[in-house]
Write a structure and sequence with these properties.
Blueprint lengths: L2 H25 L3 H21 L7 H8 L5 H18 L3 H4 L3 H26 L4 H10 L5 H10 L4 H31 L6 H6 L1 H25 L4 H23 L3 H19 L2 H28 L1 H4 L5 H31 L8 H9 L5 H12 L5 H22 L3 H8 L6 H29 L3 H23 L6 H25 L5 H33 L4 H13 L3 H21 L3 H12 L1 H28 L3 H27 L5 H19 L10 H7 L8 H10 L1 E5 L4 E3 L7 E7 L2 E5 L2 E5 L4 E2 L1 H6 L6 E4 L3 E7 H10 L1 H13 L4 H12 L1
Antiparallel strand pairs: 1-8, 2-7, 3-6, 3-8, 4-5, 4-7
Helix pairs in contact: 1-2, 2-3, 2-14, 4-12, 4-13, 4-14, 4-18, 6-7, 6-9, 6-16, 7-9, 7-19, 8-9, 9-13, 11-12, 11-13, 12-13, 12-14, 13-24, 14-18, 16-17, 16-19, 17-20, 18-19, 21-22, 23-24, 23-27, 23-28, 24-26, 25-26, 26-28, 27-28, 29-30, 31-32, 34-36, 35-36
Length: 838
């Protein structure tokens, strides 16, 4: 085909894409449904004009459309990697981890269930071999997220619902295409009745091989992008090459899943990119991929829809009934997972609750699209697949796709409305009315001052003021109608608003580069969790998420074990440095929230709610300060280095703002401005580098901080620091158990522990010790000591402790005080130590 004709058709398709979006908005239909409809009309029109005798004038155009070089490889190697890669870049991975169980059930278990359900249902009602039936099941089990997510984003649907749909569809394609590859191989080899065990045995290799390939290629790409950190276009170009190299590398090199490789590459870049690239570069990269994915998604729908008339050319009456079987079997398998397995997992406390309206929306939102058609096209192109199998795959896959797009896609918005997912909750509705009333009152004050400076005619001002006053009066009345909101709900509304403002403050700090982009994702995720925690469980949910945000997670515990037992310190150093920076960023943001509470929150919800929120904020600041203080004690000086880095970055941002102002005022030209910006970029590049954290415990510095060792001279302190063994205890960890033999004494360098003995409980903090009485009394320990915060302990064995005690007056005084507190005669204990020394 002539290159001019192809170029003209492609340009026309882009014109169709441009028209389809506003048309979809006007008709209130999913964008993908409109694209598919237009593609089908173009394909039907081309077939009609080519075969009609009414005119031959349009035959060249019809032939060009029908003979476009559209092959399945174009979809799978060009468009699919683009869509998958962009989806991973736009995902909030930390938030999706909260719903990883339902996402995994829908993306993997539901795919396998739909494949088996459709496959066996077809084999029972048709003469198609079981292998081909299972192949059809794998093809129709892929869902298309674009149609559903576009609807959810256009209405007030809960964010969690969109996240579940996006996560499912991303991994869903990977699992379905992997199964497709398995059964396609059986069909081409002529195996009529495959052993599912043998087929599924290859599944882990496809997944793990693809994941490793994608991770490896992404790490190499991120390293190159970091090396070219001053050349943004080079970084963007490398990112464009990344998904295609990962896909081809996995498919052609090791025979693994290319889809999994692309997903793994995208996830790796999503997690590591913000910390290795400049903030603006990361923003530009995501915007570039957003545009590429929009074009790829639109083109794949239009081009796939063009093929529908061709795929349905040989349809028969009986085939329509088989399409109905596919529809029923697929929806049944999805319903079993949503309404059977997920509630069971929730009852077993394995999965978070997915509300029934959410599950109904997910069930009806399982639309199929271009990927299904592309896989069907791959089957029809293979000469090793029998003709009848080709025909059935093309008809059944295409018919099922049309049903989901036309039947489900056009009614999905109505279903969501019937479920009430497009409406605000009563609390949010009340909040919106009060926000409008308060905002309009502030607007009236500002507008009155502004119109005075305009020197407008009084009649115009009076007329518009009257009109605005009527609107304000209506807003105030609507707000007054919601005055029966309980105080508990007002507190919930205030907490949601506070967490939302916290998120906005974080984004502002990121733009100003006061907060590093590698930390921004984590603190933004915490703010989102605070919003949903407050929305779900009010004050308790907010406090629970706030406490969780400063806790040491599972990854930190693993890194700690690697450091202590295998001497692999890099993971612990990186995670500890991230924690330092995260806590500093949290403290920076939290201290900015007081004005929002005393201003906006107080005007909307009153003094009582604002005072309560101020108290909650003070407690959060105290929690963050405590966690930060624990790190300061463990790694003295590092927090100060990070604070200096924040100040330097803030100063550079202010300097850049001054240059921008001078250029806008005409004080400097573009040449001078460019030169100043280049010099500033070099300084900023140096300021972006985070200081290296040495996680080696400075035991000598900790020893000097202990009041218990103040009586020792410098030489004895240094000798003692070599004898002490450092130990890190996570919150909740049992340090000393009941009925155990006393062997060591522990000194608390940072953190706190809880001691329980004889139905009594007390807490010890920094600078205190425990275990000494059991050693001195020479009896089995009857107490249990548990860390209540992440703590750093210094351990000293019994013999060395006795020698130290014999010559340290301050340590003797501490032992005497602890013995008196427990009702034990201290003189007898110390006399025993003195006799042992002599």
């Amino acid at each position: 085909m002539d290159i001019v004709v192809i170029t003209t058709i492609v340009a026309s398709l882009f014109l169709v894409i441009g028209v389809a979006e506003p048309l979809a908005a006007r008709l209130r239909l999913p964008f993908s449904v409109i694209l598919a409809g237009i593609g089908i009309l173009i394909g039907v029109a081309a077939v009609f004009f080519l075969r009609t005798e009414l005119t031959d004038a349009l035959n060249p155009v019809a032939e060009a459309i029908l003979n476009l070089p559209i092959r399945s490889n174009v979809f799978l190697y060009v468009f699919l990697p683009t869509l998958l890669f962009q989806a991973t870049l736009g995902m909030d991975l930390r938030r999706m981890l909260d719903d990883w169980v339902p996402i995994l059930m829908l993306a993997v278990v539901a795919v396998v269930a739909a494949t088996l359900s459709v496959g066996y249902a077809l084999s029972w009602v048709s003469s198609i071999p079981l292998t081909a039936c299972l192949l059809i099941g794998a093809i129709v089990s892929t869902t298309d997220p674009s149609a559903v997510v576009s609807i959810f984003r256009s209405i007030s649907a809960p964010r969690r619902l969109s996240r579940i749909i996006e996560g499912e569809s991303l991994l869903n394609d990977a699992a379905a295409i992997a199964l497709f590859g398995l059964f396609m191989g059986f069909v081409m080899m002529g195996v009529p009745d495959p052993k599912l065990g043998d087929a599924l045995a290859r599944f882990p290799y496809l997944i793990l091989g693809g994941a490793f390939t994608g991770w490896l290629v992404a790490r190499i790409a991120v390293g190159m992008m970091s090396f070219f950190r001053r050349h943004e276009l080079a970084q963007l170009s490398i990112s464009v090459a990344l998904p295609y190299l990962a896909y081809i590398g996995a498919e052609q090199s090791i025979g693994a899943s290319g889809v999994i490789a692309v997903v793994a590459a995208g996830l790796t870049l999503n997690l590591t990119g913000p910390g290795r690239l400049q903030p603006q570069t990361w923003i530009n990269l995501r915007e570039l991929w957003g545009v590429l994915a929009h074009w790829a998604g639109a083109l794949i729908f239009v081009l796939a829809a063009l093929l529908i008339p061709r795929l349905l050319e040989e349809i028969r009456i009986g085939d329509i009934a088989l399409v109905g079987v596919v529809v029923v079997a697929s929806i049944f398998a999805r319903a079993v997972i949503l309404f059977g397995l997920l509630p069971l997992l929730t009852a077993l406390r394995v999965s978070p609750t997915v509300e029934r309206p959410y599950r109904v929306a997910i069930l009806w939102g399982g639309l199929r699209g271009a990927v299904t058609l592309a896989l069907a096209l791959a089957v029809t192109e293979s000469f090793r697949v029998p003709d009848e199998v080709q025909r059935m795959v093309g008809i059944l896959a295409t018919g099922f796709t049309l049903f989901t797009l036309i039947g489900q896609g056009t009614t999905l918005r109505w279903i969501i409305g019937r479920l009430g997912l497009d409406r605000l909750s009563p609390i949010d509705d009340a909040l919106s009315r009060q926000v409008v009333a308060v905002s309009l009152q502030k607007v009236r004050e500002d507008l009155a001052r502004t119109t005075e400076n305009y020197e407008l005619s009084r009649d115009v001002v009076r007329s518009e003021a009257k009109r605005f006053g009527e609107r304000l009066e209506g807003a105030v009345k609507a707000a007054d109608d919601s005055q029966d909101i309980h105080d508990r709900d007002r507190i919930t509304l205030g907490l949601i608003a506070l967490a939302g403002h916290e998120r906005d403050t974080i984004l502002m700090r990121v733009r100003e580069r006061t907060i590093a982009s590698r930390i921004a994702e984590q603190v933004l995720s915490n703010a989102d969790r605070l919003i949903e925690g407050a929305r779900a469980d009010g004050r308790h949910g907010y406090n629970r998420i706030a406490r969780r945000s400063v806790k040491y997670g599972f990854g930190f515990r693993v890194a700690n074990i690697l450091h202590r037992r295998l001497h692999l310190s890099r993971p612990l150093a990186r995670m500890t440095a991230d924690r330092f920076e995260m806590l500093l960023s949290q403290r920076l943001v939290l201290r900015d929230l007081g004005g929002f509470i005393s201003g906006r929150i107080r005007r909307i919800h009153g003094k009582r709610v604002s005072d309560l929120l101020s108290d909650l904020l003070s407690r959060r600041i105290e929690i963050v300060e405590t966690a930060l203080q624990g790190l300061r004690l463990q790694y003295p000086g590092y927090a100060e280095e990070l604070e200096r880095r924040i100040i330097r970055r803030t100063a550079l941002r202010l300097e850049e703002r001054e240059y921008e102002t001078m250029r806008e005022d005409g004080l400097i030209g573009d040449e001078v401005y460019t030169k100043l910006r280049a010099a500033l970029a070099q300084k900023r590049s140096r300021a972006e580098d985070r200081p290296k954290l040495d996680i080696a415990l400075r035991r000598i510095e900790l020893v000097r901080q202990f009041p218990l060792f103040s009586g020792l001279d410098a030489r004895d302190q240094k000798r003692l620091s070599r004898l002490l063994k450092a130990r890190h205890a996570n919150a909740g960890e049992v340090i000393l158990g009941r009925d155990s033999v006393a062997k060591s004494v522990f000194f608390i360098a940072s953190g706190a522990v809880e001691v329980e003995a004889a139905n009594q409980t007390w807490r010890l903090g920094r600078g205190e010790m425990f275990g000494q009485l059991s050693i001195l009394m020479r009896r089995t320990r009857r107490t249990e000591v548990r860390a209540i915060t992440p703590s750093t302990l210094l351990e000293l064995d019994e013999a060395r402790f006795r020698r130290l005690l014999s010559r340290s007056k301050s340590l003797q005084q501490a032992v005497r005080a602890s013995a008196e507190k427990r009702g034990i005669a201290p003189d007898a204990l110390l006399a025993d130590v003195e006799r042992a020394r002599q």
